[in-house]
Amino acid sequence: MIDDVVLTAGHYEAVVTPFGAALRSARHRGRDLVAARPPGFDPSMRGAVLAPWPNRTADGRYEFDGLTHELEITEPTTRTAVHGLVTRTLFDVAARTARSAVLSTVIDRPSGYPWRMRLDVSTVVSEEGIQQRITATNESEERAPVGLGAHPSLVAGPAVPSAIDRWTLTVPADEVMLVSGDRMLPVGRVPVEGTPYDLRRRRPIADRVVNNALTALRPDDEGIVRVSLVDPADGTGVELRVDGSSPWLQVYTADHGPAGEYRHAVAVEPSTCPPDALRSGVDLRLLEPGQSTSLWWELRAL
Question: Which pTM was predicted?
């Protein structure tokens, strides 16, 4: 049995599991801010750490520095390799206090990714919220490509089927990556103006179906991008915050999967790059030997 790491401060509590360094739960005054994750592997990826790439890689095949690499196809329906290599990895608890923990692992040249990449996942709970920073460090002797992501599934009330239809969502993003209907792979980047993906002002989710990466994010005067999910019945909800380390937000309205998870939460996934970045190179981060990069995000109750 794998022991969870429970972190508390003020009225906030976070539970992190060494299995994939996933955020199993996040609460404020006992109220869920994310859809709780079951023990072990979760096919819905709730709370998962996504590395060394987030989202999909078409056909599991990409080229880098003149060589072709082939990853395992993990989503047969779209013929893609999805969400990296660590969602089933048991991380080590490298450091821990009552309020914080660092979970670490090393991706050591698996098939399709011939580099050694260290991952450190730091989760900190304070009186103001729950923060996570995912850091990748290239321990190879040659440069390596990397993309990072997180997969919190936000809730503004009980995570029951069709719950999100009653909630409102705000995502201050000016552009959206359109994707193909059959494989969910990028087909073009366009302004959100006049599309169902225009969430720059608080909008009812209602019957919107979204499984797209949003970008051209609008930070506030402090350099923070704020996403809010709210239940208009009582004004409660959750705010997800990112900084410049996350130029993309994958938004998913949970329209697939088991019946009990149908539209039960809104996944808002901070990401360093869009889908298929190992192939396109869009915002893909290239790390020289010994170089690090990171992704930061935070949850706060509304």
Answer: 0.97
